[in-house]
From TrEMBL:
Biological process, per Gene Ontology: microtubule-based movement; mitotic spindle organization; spindle elongation
Family indicated by similarity: Belongs to the TRAFAC class myosin-kinesin ATPase superfamily. Kinesin family.
Transmembrane segments: none
UniProt-annotated location(s): Cytoplasm, Cytoskeleton
Cross-referenced PANTHER family: CHROMOSOME-ASSOCIATED KINESIN KIF4A-RELATED, KINESIN-LIKE PROTEIN
Organism: Motacilla alba (White wagtail)
Name of the protein in its database record: Kinesin-like protein
Database matches in InterPro entries: Kinesin-like_fam, Kinesin_motor_CS, Kinesin_motor_dom, Kinesin_motor_dom_sf, P-loop_NTPase
CDD domains from the UniProt entry: KISc (cd00106)
Highest taxon above the source species: Eukaryota
Molecular-function GO terms, alphabetical: ATP binding; microtubule binding; microtubule motor activity
One GO CC annotation: microtubule
Record-listed ATP binding positions: G84, Q85, T86, G87, S88, G89, K90, T91
Occurrences of domain Kinesin motor (ranges): 2-333
Amino acid sequence: PRPHPTLRVRPLTCTETRRGDQQVVHSLGDGAVHVSAARHDATFGFSAVFDAGASQEVVFEGSGMRQLVELAIDGFSCTVFAFGQTGSGKTYTLMGPLGQSETQPASPALLGLMQRSFTCLLEQSRSRGSDLALSASYLEIYNEQVRDLLSPGPPCALPLRWSKTRGFYVENQLSVEFESLEAIVSLLLQGSQRRRTSAHALNRHSSRSHALLTIHVCSRAASACPSKQGTLCFVDLAGSERVKETGSSGELSVEANSINRSLLALGHCISLLAKPRGKRTHIPYRDSKLTRLLARSLGGSGITLMVACISPSSRCLSETLSTLHYASRARRVTTRP
């Protein structure tokens, strides 16, 4: 199967409206979106397009996320990744509002794909009556270092290894078992509060790292059947950005360059994977820690849902076009789960 790129167009922000930015992205219905601005007139097709009015529930139901949860229970390796320019709504789509914490939970209607998937996973495991063992690990890649977001103490760098049986894996990462919705949501919120974020000209809470939350689903079946081991991995990519636009300097600029390098490596792998199998050359997964960790989901035995997030503002046109081209290329990648 091919990845299902879905597109989410966020509303114009108050700042953009006050500034007089034009809306240059329009949904045409039926998975098509049209970009019209000076010297640009293009239409792109996706599995689904969610415009500014789409609720978090509509995105969950319309993106195929529920089916992905079921496939993970059936033993498949499933990945969801959100990508796009900084400030385009990736973290909101995956997690919901930024200010939420265990003491101040978000309103249920605003919860993102992650919490909705956890609810669905736990409901499924109860209804199937099967003996599911669930555990979670949560990592961030910051300045090309892999760090554990769940282990106590300040996040320290972990080595990334390769083995014939497991492919690329992170050594000594903490995996925490959970049985309830409260427990997994608590792990998510604790981990995301430890993520690196900074404020700059385009986004007051810009994620400065790529975060990967992996849910391991092991079905301990009756002795006659072998157990199935599936994974559901949520990837919140740091936003692509032009350093000039964000006014970043010093450490922020180093972070931006490291983010852009890993996104470039990811784009390069996707471009090569999109070629017909006979014409493919070597896929350079080793070019970045991000592509190593996503190697299995991108080109091998995984099933991937991609959520491209864009701003409709005329001011963000070049970044929006680059996200749309990126997602269109990803449509042509085939995997063999």
